[in-house]
Amino acid sequence: MTFTLPTDLHTRPVAIVGAGTLGRRIALMFTTRGGTVRIYDPVPAAGRAAQAYVEQNATDTAARIEGGKPGTATATTDLVEALAGAWLVIEAVPERLELKKRVFAELDAAADADAILASNSSSYPTSRFIDRVTRPERVLNMHFYMPPRQSAVDLMSSGRTDRAVLDLLLAELPHYGVFPFEAHRESTGFIFNRVWAAIKRESLSVVSEGVSTPQDIDAMWRINTGLPAGPFRAMDIVGLDVVLNIENHYAAENPALPAGPRELLKRYIDAGHLGVKTGRGFYDDYAEQD
Ligand code: NAD
Questions:
Q1: In angstroms, rounded to a whole number, what is the distance separating the alpha carbons of residues 189 and 210?
Q2: pLDDT tens-place string over residues 40-97
């Protein structure tokens, strides 16, 4: 089946499926040209919170983008209503493969025939969930980091994605203050996450081998890069359990990766020190969260 690219992009909405941490931030970026974003989430409170987040941040975010103007976001618990007329649908539901498969089948059935369907999944290539999709040419990974602050985006073909879909997004996304980079072949972790994983892994190795401490590595990082936080502070913020899950995922694919980084993380996790969320991780200067 051939795929016809969407047209009239600037008068059609973008739809975001899943209104959590990332969904609301992605929604915010697509309001920055003055248009409408629809947010679908089956949990009404999540949709409301996402809408409020966009309202609070739309003006400032649009002001940072050349030619930007704040638009609006509307949340709904009705998927068909959310998708109607949308030229681009971005899925940001929890990271469970079965759920992604089900959601993509639903999106494929309910979205306009020319709508592009993208997944924000951090770890699953879309090749893993197009088996129930009738038009796989329109499906791809569009992986955001933490917009609006970290607004680079990985684009990755499923292997069956129409080349024109990638080219359209590479040209169009910068208008929304989103900066796309294409992974030229399937890659777990896409582009920047793989580089960052290597930095975390080597930092953990240096500590697990007794060569240095988290505090000294972060101090050297700050001095030499000029960045405000080093890898250990960053891992504490993400959560050491999440960091371990990510590293386990890479290790499952590449058994040659060293075990030391995972063992060090596990020692902290076993002691209940998960980072900011438990009040202590590599650092112990966080107030305990309730
Ligand atoms: P989250 O748990 O904060 O939000 C998920 C939302 O999806 C919730 O509001 C939930 O109610 C909703 N949801 C559940 N089932 C749904 C369904 N069937 N249809 C629509 N919505 C549904 O999750 P998150 O951290 O925003 O992560 C979402 C996706 O983004 C994951 O695939 C994750 O890998 C990816 N991602 C997350 C981050 C991050 O730092 N959190 C970064 C990049 C990518």
A1: 28
A2: 999 999 999 999 999 999 999 999 999 999 999 999 999 999 999 999 999 999 999 9
Please tell me the distance between residue 224's alpha carbon and the centre of ligand 1 in angstroms.
Answer: 35
22 CA from centroid of ligand 1 (Å): 6
Supply the residue whose CA is at minimum distance from atom 11 of ligand 1: 43
| 101-156 per-position pLDDT tens digit | 999 999 999 999 999 999 999 989 999 999 999 999 999 999 999 999 999 999 99
- Pairwise CA distance, residues 165 & 114, whole Å: 10
Q: What SS3 class is residue 45?
A: helix
| Residue 4 maps to a domain | no
Same domain, 100 and 207: no
Say which CATH number the domain at 57 has.
3.40.50.720
d(CA 272, CA 281): 8
**pLDDT at residue 289 above 60?**
no
229 inside domain: yes
Which of 129, 160, 183 is the C-terminal boundary of a domain? 183
Atom 10, ligand 1: residue with shortest CA distance: 18
CB of 21 within 6 A of ligand 1: the answer is yes
| CATH number reported for the structural domain that contains residue 212 in this entry | 1.10.1040.10
239 CB within 6 A, ligand 1: no
* Segments forming the whole domain that contains residue 266: 193-278
287 within a domain of the structure (yes/no): no
Q: Which residues of 263-278 are buried (b: 16+ CB within 10 A; e: fewer)?
A: ebbeebbeeebbbbbb
Helix (H, G, I), strand (E, B) or coil at 150: strand
For ligand 1, atom 29, the nearest C-alpha belongs to 92
Confirm whether 166 is domain-assigned: yes
